[in-house]
Write a structure and sequence with these properties.
Length: 465
Amino acid sequence: MSSHREAPEISKDPVADSSDLYAFVSPDRHDSVTLIANYVPLQLPSGGPNFFEFGDDVRYEIHIDNDGDGHPDVTYRFEFRTEITNENSFLYNTGPIESLDSKNWNRRQFYKLTRVTDGKEHVLANKLPCPPCNVGPLSIPKYNDLVRQATYKLSTGEKVFAGQRADGFFVDLGAIFDLGTLRPFQQLHVAGKKLFKTEGEPVNSVDRMNVHSIAVQVPLSKVRRKSNRYGVGDRASTIGVWTTASRQQVRVLGDKVAADAAIGPWTQVSRLGNPLFNEVIVPMSKKDLWNTLPPTEDKRFARFVEQPELAALLPVLYPGVFPNLDALNKSKKPRADLLAILLTGIPSGLIDGFTNLTGDVQADMLRLNTAIKPSSRPNQFGLLGGDLAGFPNGRRVVDDVVSIALRAVAGVTVPLVDKKFRPDAAAGAVTPGLSAADVTAPFLRDFPFLGTPYDGFNNPAAAKS
């Protein structure tokens, strides 16, 4: 959660596991969109001497659909290569790393960035260096200087970064996966009421952990299809975004003298669009299959959106708290609100001044109406908080997607499609109880937005004498 260990097979392959995807009109550059895909989740910052990195044998991609058919019209592809400086040292670095070409840095990564449009590949940059992992203050005295060196403005208009960042997702994993406990409501839980007298304090389970991010800031003219108008109500203003990781189909293990080799066509092993889709909507038996399919196949999973398991569990786990949701579940009415939010986009007329409908094709994508300008005061509950620039209109780093998703599943969004339905009082308050303030590393105000990765020396925080 959002997608850190969402399927059995990809949880065994963290280098190719997409954990979070963000897409938003850039607050620091309103004529562009920022796209960030995180991989290699749950990194312990002190995990040396073999610190975390991208996979040289993985193809990482961010896809943009600008005509609503569920197929990518624009793709940004990142491919990495690792080089060792000192073959006789076991260390990641043999002294302070003060520049991206430091001789003290023993294991460096570079990447090629390719833009794919209309089936044609355009290499935008080759051998761009990533910054190192944040080992500690002695190894890297000025980490942010290296991040600035590793952030590139390309001649084609894109800004790009690839490297380690602090995990900005906030979620109480320990409680949620302990039979769906929400600590602010734990005393109402069917089993928790035997243990708890009052509400509990939430815990951000992924705080002080790192991820590896691929990030690109793209002029809107390069992601939207051509149109005479880009108003809020114009279909050309809305794009769909998802990320994938792929591996070649055959891996040959080397013998005593030969290195391992990967051959054959590329096959998709990981996918992420909306947060929590595979994690919470798709049943366990189909999660690995979902990761291999394109968004155009998501009609196969529409029935799990129409009648989500979590919606049925809430009244069971919290007896008497969700009576209206319970009645809705028993009526077997398909959840048209969730189908719109997750698979088609929200049509005009349901929310004043808003739509991010992409069409009839059911596809799990982050849908972003690029005509809606960034909010000067973002509301963490996005659309549910009256902020049209927030999730599920794309996703910003500060959006509380877990609370938004829980409230939608609990029935808050049903009145969009059924005016007679009255959400339960608890539906609008259900939350794990966390916010962006529970992320120790502050978010940045500009690209690449995610905070400075936690360093190994100070994580966990060193005791003060």
